[in-house]
Specification:
The complex is a heterodimer. Chain A is α+β, with helices and mostly antiparallel strands. Chain A is 19% helix and 28% strand. In chain A, a hairpin with a 5-residue loop joins β2 and β3. Chain B has a six-stranded mixed β-sheet. β4 of chain A pairs antiparallel with β5 of chain B, so a sheet runs across the interface. Chain B: It comes from Myotis myotis.
Chain lengths: 121, 133
């Protein structure tokens, strides 16, 4: 049963700043996150909930999809016990803890440089 | 079949049972029927689950349309894991009573904290959001 509110042809789903095309990363930080797909990360949310899992995918709003999750802090949040994959809205993420050895420093520095250049323009 | 390869899409989660955590602290469980680019959701056969300690209670709610900005987390429920939780289900009246007691103790503790700070000449800054999750 698929009751989609609005249907757009694949690849032209509207976004806040105009239709986007698949396969293109639109911001340098998105590129950086895409390089971390498949790695173990810990996402800390604004409500102090910390979830430890494998980064599955990221989108232009920096919404995060995670597989194989486990709650790192003591189970103050018992409801998450029966969930293994989850989608976290970008707006509620505080920060993402990355494994230090997996981070490509060159890429990170390029990303930071590009972002400042973009912001200056 | 991926409409936007490499993106965090909810399209594969449609028609599956999901747990949604909202910004006001509520937990909804239902079948995800519809999505859009803002993460607005349509949930079918929704149940609001209230957790207090190790107990929980379910209130049936029907069909929910959730505005995307209020969504914190959306998780697919693993039906096998769901059946072996250490949590104990109780009736609606009982869980509402427990929740009321919990809120009261929280309010009392807050009052004591604010009083203690006032005594030392400090004031608590007022929270500028309504988020309670």
């Amino acid at each position: 049963m698929l009751w989609l509110a609005l249907w757009f042809p694949p690849g032209l789903w509207p976004t806040a700043s105009g239709p986007r095309f698949p396969g293109l990363a639109h911001s340098p930080s998105l590129l950086f996150f895409k390089s971390l797909v498949g790695k173990d990360v810990v996402v800390e949310l604004k409500n102090d909930l910390s979830v430890c899992e494998i980064l599955h995918s990221v989108d232009q709003y920096l919404n995060i999809k995670l597989t194989d999750i486990s709650v790192t802090d003591p189970e103050k949040y018992p409801h998450i016990l029966s969930v293994k994959n989850c989608f976290i809205r970008g707006s509620v993420v505080h920060y993402v803890q990355l494994p230090a050895h997996e981070v490509d420093m060159q890429l990170l520095q390029n990303v930071a440089r590009k972002e400042t250049l973009q912001q200056k323009q | 079949m991926n409409y936007m390869p490499g993106t965090a899409s909810l399209i594969e989660d449609i028609d599956k049972k999901h747990l949604v955590l909202l910004r006001d602290g509520r937990t909804l469980i239902g079948f995800l029927r519809s999505i859009d680019q803002f993460a607005n959701l349509v949930l079918h056969q929704t149940v609001e689950r209230i957790h207090v300690g190790k107990k929980y209670g379910d209130i049936p709610r029907g069909i929910f349309v959730v505005r995307g900005e209020n969504v914190v987390l959306l998780g697919e429920i693993d039906l096998e894991k769901e059946s072996d939780t250490p949590l104990q289900q109780v009736s609606i009246e009982e869980i509402l009573e427990e929740q009321r007691v919990e809120q009261q103790t929280k309010l009392e503790n807050e009052k004591l904290k604010v009083q203690a700070l006032k005594d030392r000449g400090l004031s608590v800054p007022r929270a500028d959001t309504l988020d309670e999750y």
